[in-house]
Amino acid sequence: MKFTAEQIADILEGEVVGNPNAEVHQLSKIEEGKDGSLTFLSNPKYNHFIYTTEATITIVNKNFEPESKINTTLIKVEDAYLSFTKLLEFYDQVKGLKNGIENPVAISEGVIYGDNFYLGSFSYIGTNVTIGDNVKIYPNCYIGDNVKIGSEVTLYPGVKIYSETEIGNKCKIHSGVVIGSDGFGFAPNADGSFKKIPQIGNVIIEDDVEIGAATTIDRATMGSTIIRKGVKLDNQIQVAHNVEIGENTVIAAQTGIAGSTKIGKNGMIGGQVGITGHLIIGNNVRIQAQSGVTRNIKDNEILQGSPTFGYNDFSKSYVHFKNLPKIITEIEELKKEILNTKNRNNG
Asked: How far is Cα 22 from Cα 5, in angstroms, rounded to an integer?
């Protein structure tokens, strides 16, 4: 798909300086610009690249004035970075404009879907599923019985959604995500074996949630596992049964949350954090990467370590952690001196 400088300027409400008919069909970094590509310049540290870039069109701030000859067509805007971001969003929308039902697919009885529906090949939709408008389901997806999906939802290739799951509007679910698989519930028998506890709950995902590739969200034992509005989950996260994650909380990759823990809103949780079960974590909590959380956390705490404690205390203590071998050597020397002093006094 090609766009001219004039078309792009209209989208961004910008001014063309150069050839309004210059065409682009791809995006690039300014230092890697090639013929037919669109780039942007917002950081003055990169100004020198505009004189050598081969990009056909470059978005710049309104106050930019070249100091020597340039070969690229300029589009001047109020804020080049924000405008380029807007263009990326537009490009992403255009790229995702798929419609229709490919073959082969399997659509069961009682399925209802809205306008501008796309279903990729080798996908399966179970009975009594309801799907809103502008939903895109890419190839090799599985949707179980009685699932509800809102409008403007995208399921990327290979997503698996088990029965009874509810997904709100404007959600993006990336490849390999599994939603609604059984929670890890087993009761010990007298002989040391384990008996599976049926997991009869479901998963509820509210509006504007994004879930990264290969993340797994377990159904509740009873009731619901709930991902609230605006939550953003990175790749390869494990959310166990009956967990609740509050609004606008973001969680980085490889974090694991054990069963029945409740996480408040507006939290930020780093990568590879481990959170034990049945905890209550407050609002606006920050947990640094690779921390282990084993206690309830109050609102607004900033934590690090395993087990976690206050971030400032951790930073101060870490200075001493690094010096432990030296400190131990000094303690041993002091012990020897004390012992020698005692022996001299006794002698």
From this structure: 6
- For the entire predicted model, the pTM comes to 0.79
User: Among all residues, which ones are annotated catalytic?
Assistant: 241
pLDDT of residue 347: 62
**Residue 83: closest CA among 53, 67, 62:** 62
Q: Widest CA span of the chain, in angstroms?
A: 101
With H, G, I as helix, E, B as strand and everything else as coil, classify residue 329: helix
**CATH for 82:** 3.40.1390.10
Tally of structural domains, the chain: 3
Query: Residue 331 and residue 325: Cα distance in Å, rounded?
Result: 10
Domain range spanning residue 173? 100-312
Helix 80-95 and helix 5-12: axis angle, to 10°? Answer: 110
Please state, in angstroms and rounded to a whole number, the distance separating the CA atoms of residues 2 and 8.
10
Specify the range with the lowest mean pLDDT, choosing from 244-253, 307-316, 319-328.
Answer: 307-316
User: What are 229's two structure tokens?
Assistant: 């509005």
59 and 119 share one domain: no
Amino acid of residue 295: R
Q: From CA 66, how far away is CA 303, in angstroms rounded?
A: 48
